[in-house]
Amino acid sequence: MAVKKITKAALTEWVGELVSKERVFGVQSKGDKFDFGPLTSAQDLRLDYDVTLQPPKKYFLPPVETLLTFEVSAGYESQYSDKPFVLIGVHPYDMIAINQIDELFKQGYYDTHYMTRRSNATIITCDVVNASENVFASQMKTATVKDGFDILLTDIGDSYIAEAATEKGEALLSKAETADASKDDLDKREKIQKDNEKNLSKHQLKCEVAELPGLLENAYNHPVWEEKAATCFACGSCNQVCPTCYCFNVQDDVKWDMKTGQRCRAWDGCMLDGFAMVAGGHDFRKKRADRFRHRLYRKAKYVPEKIGGQIACVGCGRCVSACLPDIANPVNVYNRLFDDIKTK
Amino acid sequence: MCECCTQEKDIYLPQIATVQKVRLMNDTEMYVRFTMDDGGFDYTPGQFVEVSIAGIGEAPLTIASSPTQKDGIELVVRRIGNVTKAIHNLRAGDKIGIRGPLGKGTYPVEHSKGKDLIFICGGIGLVPQRSFINYVLDNRTDYGNVTVLLGTKCYPQRFFQSELQQLEARDDVHYLETVDEAHDCWNGNVGVVTTLIPKIESELASSEIFICGPPIMYKFVLMALAEDSVPRDQIYLNLERKMKCGVGLCGHCQINKYYVCIDGPVFKYSDLGVAPEAI
Ligand SMILES: Cc1cc2nc3c(=O)[nH]c(=O)nc-3n(C[C@H](O)[C@H](O)[C@H](O)COP(=O)(O)OP(=O)(O)OC[C@H]3O[C@@H](n4cnc5c(N)ncnc54)[C@H](O)[C@@H]3O)c2cc1C
Ligand code: SF4
Ligand code: SF4
Ligand code: FES
Fold first, then answer.
1. Domain span(s) for CATH 2.40.30.10 in chain B
2. CATH class for domain B116-278?
3. Distance from the B18 Cα atom to the nearest Cα atom in chain A, whole angstroms
4. A109-133 core/surface letters (b: 16 or more CB in 10 A; e: else)
5. Which of B24, B84, B159, B252 to mutate to test the pocket of ligand 1 (most atoms within 8 A of CB)?
6. How confident is the model at residue B184 (pLDDT cuts 50, 70, 90)?
7. Rounded to 10 degrees, what is the CA torsion of B38, B39, B43, B46?
8. A38 with A153, same domain?
9. Which of B6, B11, B16, B124 to mutate to test the interface with A (most CBs of A within 10 A)?
10. How far is Cα A333 from Cα A320, in angstroms, rounded to an integer?
């Protein structure tokens, strides 16, 4: 498919056109940080951002969504969000996280609610320009991305390289004023990507990412779980900001008429108290250390076993920034295990 | 895109069923029989359904009947929280929502043929076992000796009594019962269910053993079976965890790498070596 070059001015014009015609969400500044939000002006788009506060998963798995509506005596009706939208500015590591959740939500039981949102999306990714303070995507091999997106943008200075990867992307890109990318342009892009594959490394993993599942084979009773969890608040922030966390709760809301209502799903988190508690009060993962361990085993063992070995931590570093007692950083835990287990 | 375009069904959408019969069995347990309005479904002993009460929510409940029984599907529901309370208020003719049957880890109905079977049940743990027990009784010649052990906390909590009396009266089933606490009206065994294990007449080490009961029971039963050197791949545990989706996505029912809702609820003990959270 097409690999084009588009000047920064032409990109702004193209995004301006998009914004006027479609539902567009993009990265914008929020105080001294960045986040995804509805984009109303091309000028607000910040493709030079370091990391967004929230990952883009909310566009596919909203914090709260209606699955069904019901009428108490008449039955249930599925509800779908049917509106197409364009999402601009997804970083490669976040795209990889979306690809993982796509696989999980269709491999066993097919989740029509998630997949409807997903197929309504046109995703424009962009290579990272500025590294955030805690990113370690290079370590997780998620600093660049090969698939899942419709268009990939790479900032090469005065212009962007724009690669369309799907027909949807191609159609969208054809509306922009572009030129063919030269060999020189492509070399520039390759250099940027190669650099990102090395430099998005604010935390260094002592082993290869592919060794993590093996490392966890012998780490179940290691003291690190108790040690780290000793200061855990069970606030669930590390779950909330994580692009690969997808646990949810399901709950009914009844309207004031007491006859109609909706069944909603909302984000949940395995670090929260009561996540595994059943009626009557028995809690199957009562200890914070057990939950702390569960989260990191999910990331590097349980989920990878379901999705062909890919580690369910993409190194965005959000949990590192979000955790007040500073214990959530997966790299610190895995390194500690590596030191103790592999060097023995 | 929606169902009509993807050809995929909404996995969260309940199908409508009609309650045929309800009966309170003791203070807390209610028997419910229902039929699916659109004709029904096939199921294997060990599977469960998500019962939906609009406005309250869903609860996973094991199918208590055997697929050999054709008139309706039976449940036994303990009143313990919001949904189960609402189920206790149901009357014949009421509509409920059903998703299922769910759970791919079921009783090994085929694999166990020709073997001696031992069912060890604690309290309401009798309910999931009943599906397979009744299946075996309806196909009696396919299986070897059948032993059923039941332990109940206290005498007034016993349920399915006429059915259990019939079980006791059969000469092709060895039925043993105990209650934890002595009671004036009870002159049978007193003590926890493990005290019945030495009374089993079948050869433990060559039997297929099925366990279902409260979380605490598993550890003690497994310890007792270990003393008798029962191979782990002949022991099946019916596990319960919090559930929300029932389809392997919400994460609530996870036990290490397993999801009780899809990999269970019935697990072979030998498969649980990698799941230290299970017991
Ligand atoms: C596979 C399976 C089979 C079961 N079979 C039976 C049965 O045959 N008879 C019976 O009486 N009970 C059974 N249970 C337990 C039953 O599901 C819970 O008692 C019930 O969900 C409590 O719901 P509630 O709304 O009344 O309680 P609340 O305390 O109001 O619970 C709120 C929600 O939390 C979840 N939840 C709470 N407790 C449990 C639990 N123990 N297991 C799973 N989810 C829970 C449910 O989604 C529930 O709706 C089974 C549980 C599982 C996992
Ligand atoms: S690890 Fe940190 S962010 Fe996660 S629940 Fe504990 S305190 Fe909160
Ligand atoms: S575990 Fe932390 S660093 Fe890894 S993907 Fe989740 S939020 Fe990002
Ligand atoms: S109940 Fe949701 S994953 Fe099992």
1. 9-102
2. alpha beta
3. 12
4. bbbbbbbbbbebbbbbbbbbeebbe
5. B84
6. confident
7. 70
8. yes
9. B11
10. 12
Give the model's pLDDT for residue B251: 97
* Residue that the structure tokens 């790479």 belong to: A154
Name which residue leads in pLDDT, B182 or B123: B123
H/E stretch holding A273 reads none
Q: Which token pair is A116? A: 């409807």
Counted domains in chain A: 2
Dist CA A206 CA A322 (whole Å):
23
pLDDT higher than threshold 80 for residue B30 = yes
Which residues of B have a CB under 8 Å from any CB of A?
1-3, 6, 8-14, 16, 52, 54-58, 80-81, 84, 95, 97, 215, 240-242, 244-245, 247-252, 254-257, 262, 276-277
Based on the fold, state whether residues A103 and A18 are members of the same structural domain: yes
Q: How confident is the model at residue A344 (pLDDT cuts 50, 70, 90)?
A: low
Q: Among A252, A265, A307, which would you mutate to test the B interface (most chain B Cβ atoms within 10 Å of its Cβ)?
A: A252
With CB atoms and an 8 Å threshold, state whether A108 touches B6: no
Residues A280 and A175 in one domain: no
A323 vs chain B: nearest CA distance in angstroms?
22
Residues A181 and A255 both lie in one domain = no
With the most atoms of ligand 1 within 8 angstroms of its CB, the residue from A278, A283, A284, A285 to mutate is A278
CA of B28 to the centre of ligand 1 (A): 14
Q: Does residue A268 sit within a domain?
A: yes
DSSP character for B14? P
Q: Which residues of B192-209 are buried (b: 16+ CB within 10 A; e: fewer)?
A: bbbbbbeebebebeebbb
Per-residue model confidence as pLDDT tens digits over B197-252: 999 899 999 999 999 998 889 999 999 999 888 999 999 999 999 999 999 999 99
Q: Which atom in ligand 1 lies closest to the alpha carbon of residue B79?
A: 26
Give this prediction's pTM: 0.95
Select from B12, B242, B256 the Cβ nearest to the Cβ of A302.
Answer: B256
Does residue A300 fall inside a structural domain?
A: yes
Nearest chain B alpha carbon to A120:
B1
Q: Is A73 in Cβ contact with B95 (below 8 Å)?
A: yes
Which of A163, A180, A199 is the C-terminal boundary of a domain?
A199
Is 90 exceeded by the pLDDT of residue A32?
Answer: yes
Task: Give the ipTM.
Answer: 0.94
State the span(s) of chain B assigned CATH 3.40.50.80.
Answer: 116-278
Which residue from A35, A31, A38 is spatially nearest to A51, judged by alpha carbons? A35
> What single-letter DSSP state applies at residue B45?
T
Nearest to B1 among A116, A275, A301 (CB): A116
Residue A117 lies in a domain: yes
From the CA of A251, how far away is ligand 4's center (Å)?
A: 14
Q: Are residues A123 and A177 in the same domain?
A: yes
Which domain range does residue A116 map to? 3-199
Separation in Å, CA of A74 to nearest CA in chain B:
9
Second-level CATH architecture of B9-102: Beta Barrel (2.40)
Q: Check residue B2 and give its pLDDT.
A: 47
Residues B123-156 have pLDDT tens digits of: 999 999 999 999 999 999 999 999 999 999 888 8
Cis-peptide, bond into residue A55, ω within 30° of zero: no
Per-position DSSP letters for A274-300, written without gaps between them: TTTBPTTS-BTT-SHHHHHHHHHHIII
Q: Is the residue at A204 inside a domain?
A: no
Any atom of ligand 3 within 6 Å of the Cβ of A56: no
